[in-house]
Amino acid sequence: MIALALALHLASPSFACDGEGSTAATEAGEKKKCDMPTAETLAPVPTAGTHVALNVTGMHCGSCANAVHAALMKVDGVTGAQVDMTTGIVQVAYDAAKANPDKLLAAVTALSEFTVKLATN
Q: What are the structural domain ranges in the chain?
């Protein structure tokens, strides 16, 4: 049962790069490697701490999701981040004494590949 769920998850088209399988075309037309999101990127955020949802646009593949996750995890005080590249929603848990939404937005904006804003319901 677990193997079937994993196979379905890995075959999910939501992780394809612009319909090209394991590569994605850059603006210049060349191909780039497009990894799957890591388990860490997809893991639920811790329940403790302050939480915020970010809306990130421009993520096309697992490598994008991994880059957003890594940038957020480098922010002092962030305890977890879960990236859903299909919806663009990133859930972030952090220690409010060390981090704030402006620092989180700045971390993703610094990647210069994505646009980010606070998610609203």
A: 36-118
Q: Which of 50, 45, 76, 63 is nearest to 114 (CA)?
A: 63
Per-residue pLDDT of the chain (121 residues; tens, 9 = 90+): 343 333 334 433 333 454 344 444 445 555 556 678 888 888 888 888 999 999 999 998 999 999 999 999 999 999 999 999 889 999 999 999 999 999 999 999 999 899 999 997 6
Whether the CB-CB separation of 114 and 80 falls below 8 Å is answered with no
Q: How far is CA 44 from the centre of its chain?
A: 12
Q: Which fold has domain 36-118?
A: Alpha-Beta Plaits (3.30.70)
Closest CA to 53 of 82, 15, 14: 82
* CA separation for the pair 95, 98 (Å, rounded): 6
- Whether the CB-CB separation of 85 and 37 falls below 8 Å is answered with yes
In degrees and rounded to multiples of 5, residue 25 shows phi and psi of -85, 135
Widest pairwise Cα distance in the chain: 44
Secondary structure (3-state) at 63: helix
